[in-house]
């Protein structure tokens, strides 16, 4: 008889709440729960699976714990598993992603429209994507950890993400997966995957550009996700400002447009911050020989910064986070174009005044 079969979902959920300090719990029950989870037997696996379909009022904490544990185990223990175990786990994670895309995990119980405690996303959007954003991100990180651990997994993940976009949920999941694919890698793994990432970027950048061109990123949440995805791929694949200007003109103009008007809506991260950081990162990419569109791209950015000085002044007075991002962009542009500044043209002098 299996000694851990008494571990139920209710006991598992109580343990999670105890870890978050919400309830007191008998230490013996906590130990039993931990043993059941670490044992990894059929009972604990049933516990993990049931958590994704729990109908408790707000299962986010439990789901996040499960997703985080799955991600951690994959990162730390994947290569110690047998081939059969790896295939079984990969199948289950892929099935979970498919069910999220299809909406089959959507909660049947409507919740009041109030801010989700784990993000700035309202509950109706949160329910449409099956999980709270913080949980979905962790699930996607687990999936991309699997992809990076298998031969050709990076290319397969990119192909799946850029082809499966029949709904807004597909777009959301694809952007989360693509972001995790290059953002959640340590330096050693990035060095090993640099060629794969560079090759994959030839598919990713046109995909992101197409999303902006077709207005599929019309919601604030999706647009911010798209910009975040673009930023991590620019850093990982070495996409210069000139390439951004010539290969993704609509995106480039959207980045510049975000600098013109103050964004006052509340939120943990404003779109203008990500836009400024994207431009800064692209400026730091050096191409040899320089692209022919480099001067035009730099001139467009310079003109924008000079024309939106009132907005920059507003951020300096009222929003330290945005002000830091924009001053980073200004200083990066100054460092990248130091020779031009020394020549002392009228625009260079005007930019020098802006820097001061």
From TrEMBL:
Protein keywords: Nucleus, Transport
GO BP field: protein import into nucleus
Main localization, broad class: nucleus
Keyword Flavoprotein attached: no
KW Nucleus (keyword) present: yes
InterPro entries hit by this protein: ARM-like, Importin_beta-like_NTR
Protein name: Uncharacterized protein
